[in-house]
Amino acid sequence: MKKLETREDIETLVNKFYDKVQTDETIGFFFNDVAKVDWDHHLPKMYSFWETLLFGQISYKGNPMAVHFPINSQVPMEKFHFAHWVQLWTQTIEQNFTGEMAEMAIYKATNIANLMGHKMEVARR
Ligand code: HEM
C-alpha cells in the first residue's frame, strides 16, 4: 500500500474522507444541513490544514476550533460524534495509506478531536 507523503496524497485522503462524511448517517447532517458546507471552499482548506499539520508546509492559517462553536450552538456536537469522525478518518487512512505519516495523521486527528469534543462540551455548560 502507498505511503502518505505528498500534497496529492493528502488531497486523495481528504476527498475520500469527505465522500464518506457527506453520506454518513451520524455526522453527515452537520455538513449538509447545519453548516450547509460549500465543498469547493471547504476541501482546499482541509488539504492545506493537513499539509500544515503533517508536512510543516504552512499553507493553512486559520482557527480550526473557532469554526465549530457556531455549529455546536445550533446542534450539540457530542463526544460520540467526534468518536465517529475519528473512526471514519482512521478507516479512510487504513484503507488507502501506510507508514509513519499515515499513523501521524491518525494520531493528530485523534488528539484534536478529543480536545474539540471537550471544548464543545464545556461551551454548552
Ligand atoms: C463531528 C466532528 C466534526 C464536525 C461535524 C465538523 C464540522 C465542520 C464543518 C461543518 C466545517 C465547515 C464550517 C464552514 O466552513 O462553514 C468544519 C471546518 C473545519 N473543521 Fe471540522 N468538524 C468536525 C471535526 C473536526 C476535527 C476533529 C478536525 C481536526 C482534526 C476538524 C477540522 C476542521 C478545519 C481545519 C476546518 C476549517 C476551518 C477554517 O475554516 O479555517 N474538524 N468542520
From TrEMBL:
Binding residues annotated for heme, in chain numbering: H68
Keywords: Heme, Iron, Metal-binding, Transport
Pfam family, one: Bac_globin
Name of the featured protein: SEC-independent protein translocase TATC
Molecular functions per Gene Ontology: heme binding; metal ion binding; oxygen binding
Source superkingdom: Bacteria
Taxonomic source organism: Kaistella jeonii
